[in-house]
Amino acid sequence: MINDSHPERRCAGVDQLSLRSLVLGVLGACIITASSMYVALRMSALPWPTVFVAVLSMALLKALGRTTLNEINITQTAMSAGAMVAGGLAFTLPGLWITGRWKGPAAFGEHFWTVLWVAIAGVLLGTVLTWFMRRRFVVEEALPYPIGVAAAETITVGDQGGQKSALLFGTMGLAAVFTYLRDGLGWIPAAFSSGWLYSRNFFIGIWVSPMAVGIGYMIGTLYTGVWFLGALLSYLVIIPLGTAAKLFPAVPAAVAFKNTAGIGLMVGTGVGILIRFLLSRLPGFPNKAAKLPSGSAPAGSGGPLRLERLLSFLAFAAAFVLSVVAGIGPLPALLLLLGVWAASAMAATITGQTGINPMEIFAIIILLAIRLLVRLDSASAFLIAAAVAITCGYAGDLLNDYKAGQMLGTSPVAQLIANAAGGLAGAVIGALAMFAVIGQFGGVGADKGLPAGQAFAVSQMVGGIGDPLVFGVALAAGALLYLFRVPVMTLGIGMYLPFEISAVVFLGGLLRLLSDRFRPGAAAGAGNIAASGLLGGEGITGVGIAIYKMLTGG
């Protein structure tokens, strides 16, 4: 257990805030953001970095000495902020490369500032909106926020003997060395596949990636199983058998069909989320929210309301200006501000109830709504989607942190400051990392090694879908299956992504199945820590190699 008898620190007049928590939090946010960008682009998935940052914060502050639970929580709040900024960028803006609007090494010099302004706008909007949502969703409705609860429990249990830290840094180091040997020196193949099978339209193999195994372990057997089912459907049925049976004139037509169907299922999930959210607001609909005892006052609900409103107005005004400077027109930018309010409320509810935050789906919903009202060029459409995704991802992350803070008694004001600092650092690093990784791989797409499935879905909404009938049927099926609690989002991802990625993710899910069966106590503890280390090690090393090659022209 952590010795919590030390006095709380104070910085800039804010209780529990410390200078070292801000410094460590911002530095950690830079690392987590870079790693998350790599993971999101390569895997089309981004698990919450909660366990990773909680153990990392605990290890660093314990090494410095005289720390407290609240200082650890504030530090991990700052560290985790950048991950969702990276996710919002990675799940939307690569669509500009997919559609051919941005290309080549010149993209960095021409568009970096545009991406940065949009990222900062999303951080500002997310910071303000979650501050006002905290009382409703965390305090009054008391939504579960399972990710926040996991963070609080990790910090409370502590790291007796340094075993968690050793496991985290050990697996991180192994993954980093492996990634350098594979991507830096080329001593390890990136994937194993069969030319004989490929020549017969069975495009199957397995990617060699500790990161993918870690992701599969963390998201569990159910989701990886459905994910792999989508891959089997695409690569063992639709493409080879559909082509052989003359259901498709050629392989490209079969590939287009499975991509359109997969994207339709993903977007249909978003429609299902919206339907369930609207139903949950109706009187009499089953609601998991807990009620406050009568006469109880929400912790931290006081404060100078006038100052809060002034700062909120300034943040919204700054976000509006940054959106316009980035290239979004004044009217679409105004509609963006209204849209992110609704989207953030949905993200807060879904994250609080399930621990899942499909930020790119909310981005698609708001983008389509704005396009019904005003005309948008494709670049503006992608930028709007990015701003919404960042805001929603950031909102879910910060509300998880507020939940952990409520359990630990952490000052929400200190958390707000720490999260804003980490988010702004994440905006800068996220923009740099995105250009670096895409530059290293020579573009975006499954053939480049950067499938970016969510960005592909957004590009379909911006540039036009494939077969409208296939898309419509898949969308309806996705919405219906979601309402019956089928994890159809991962089915769509499996249909779209290369089989090689899905296979190794499923391997991680099988390892989780074995762990749950034979060592159930270790599955959610040591297992998740080891998996987090695999993600962090490969992600950080992959981005480091990409940035080095971008700077040296390698």
UniProtKB/TrEMBL annotation:
GO cellular component terms, A-Z: membrane
InterPro entries for this protein: OPT, YSL-like
Lineage, uppermost ranks: Bacteria, Bacillati, Bacillota, Hydrogenispora
Membrane topology qualifier: Multi-pass membrane protein
Keywords attached to this entry: Membrane, Transmembrane, Transmembrane helix, Transport
Pfam families hit by this protein: OPT (PF03169)
Source species of the chain: Hydrogenispora ethanolica
UniProt-annotated location(s): Membrane
Keyword Magnesium: no
Transmembrane segments: 21-40, 46-65, 77-99, 111-132, 165-182, 202-219, 226-248, 260-279, 310-343, 355-374, 379-396, 416-441, 462-484, 496-514, 526-548
Protein name: Putative OPT family oligopeptide transporter
Keyword Cell membrane set for record: no
MF (Gene Ontology): oligopeptide transmembrane transporter activity
